[in-house]
Amino acid sequence: MQYRAIAKIVGVLLTIFSLTMLPPALVAWAYDEQTVWLFLQVFAATLLSGLLLWFPVRRYQRDLRLRDGFMVVVLFWVVLGLFGALPFLYASPELGLKPVDAVFESLSGLTTTGATVIVGLDDLPRSLLYYRQQLQWLGGMGIIVLAVAILPMLGVGGMQLYRAETPGPMKDNKLTPRITETAKALWYIYLGLTVLCAVAYWTAGMNLFDAVAHSFSTVAIGGYSTHDASMGYFNSAVIEGVAVVFMLLAGVNFALHFLAWRNLSLRPYFSDPEFKTYISVLSITAVITSSYLYYSGTFSSFGSALHHGIFQAVSIGTTTGFTTAEYHMWPSFLPVLLLLTSFIGGCAGSTGGGLKVIRVLLLLKQGMREIRRLIHPNAHFMVKVGGKSLPREVMDSVWGFFSLYVICFSVMSLILAATGLDLITAFSAVAACINNLGPGLGDVGSNYAGLNDTAKWVLCVAMLLGRLEIFTLLVLFTPTFWRK
């Protein structure tokens, strides 16, 4: 393990992260809020910490190995979460959060989970509201993917970081020959979608601040809002329609956006099996939800049932977590159906959470193959996606991921239940956090403020596991990782 190279990179990344404290400081200055000094102090503390890590090893020049990349990624998300918690921790008396609450809020933002322990968002300073939204935007595509474009200039290779941080089973497929150009291409698309989303929200009736803030969390599939009522605050079908469009786009593999833009064609979308499955799952869920809301009398008009059903199906299905109503109070099986849809999540290579559509598709295909093998035991069947046979290593990776996911989910649910939470709350809280969804059921339908401290720490781990796709975090706890 090259500890000096790791310290150098973490120091550089932490120094870069310190700059993210300046925009909320400008917002505080623009709205004449006292929090301007808070953000400047956190900026100075974060910058100094990064420089102290970087300066002693600044002349160390070694290429990262893959295991170094895993260590950098995990360390950076943990360190970033701790430093990102400082504005929440010291924003008193507006918040008055405990350390566990501040870390929970910070990690929830950076992992684009959207679970919150803060009540009374409408009364908070604009700078703190902006900071929460900005955390999600930075975490959406992954700060490390952005840093990959910068690290080569510092003499540090970036491929190991990209492979360790980028989610999905197809992560080694680069969009361009150079990894730096790949990172830049991803961020150009991400930034472009954010700008378009902000303009669309503003045109639809949001004020400029809310439009920018919600574009951050929409494209990041985060779900943080500047209002306690989330999207329901605006009570606008047009705004909700804009949100649905951009949530759908953000849940798609960004490689498809890149190919469609480069070829000026929609063919890459409709020739991709994962995209077609993604749209099909959300469409079926939306039809079931809307129909049941209408026929159960939850909404008196079909139009209301339709737009609430579509919005919640897309929001929960893509793991965004925006709400227009208290969906956890809806009748019968609907809340459970929507929560289970979040297990599928977005496409690989998107900002969405969950298992990812491609993994679920492969698991289904593998299941069907086993059924066919029972009927024809001597036949040789291959798992194919898009007409191409997949190597055995991919299927082994998917099954490995799924088994670890189930084990982690089960263990954390039992731990939460052991702290005194009812089973619905424990199950849904872990599901909402490991899938980076946000709102759950039971006591965590609205917020997580009422949970005990042990449960919050466990859910912090769940959020990291979900964001780093299980393997990246758990690999650090294996003896093989530490052997020379």
Features:
484 residues, 2 strands, 63% helix, two-stranded antiparallel sheet, mainly alpha, globular
SSE layout and pairings?
Elements (H helix, E strand, L loop, with lengths): L2 H16 L3 H9 L4 H20 L11 H19 L1 H5 L8 H12 L15 H16 L1 H6 L10 H7 L13 H26 L3 H12 L17 H14 L3 H10 L3 H4 L2 H23 L6 H16 L16 H11 L12 H19 L8 E2 L2 E2 L2 H27 L4 H12 L18 H15 L3 H4 L4 H4 L2
Antiparallel strand pairs: 1-2
Helix pairs in contact: 1-3, 1-4, 2-3, 2-7, 4-6, 4-9, 6-7, 6-21, 7-11, 10-11, 10-12, 10-13, 12-16, 15-16, 15-17, 16-17, 18-19, 19-20, 19-21, 20-21
Mean pLDDT: 88
CA radius of gyration is: 22 Å
What fraction strand? under 5%
* Total beta strands: 2
Low-confidence parts: 153-159
Strand order in the sheet with the most strands: 1-2
Helix content: 55-70%
Shape summary:
globular
Briefly note the structural class of the backbone: mainly alpha
Element-by-element helix/strand order: HHHHHHHHHHHHHHHHHHEEHHHHH
Number of helices: 23
Structure description:
The chain has 23 helices and two strands. By secondary structure, it is an all-alpha fold. It has a domain of 90 residues. α1 runs antiparallel to α3, α1 packs parallel to α4 and α15 runs antiparallel to α17. The longest helix has 27 residues. The termini are close together.
Quick gist of this model?
The chain is mainly alpha-helical.
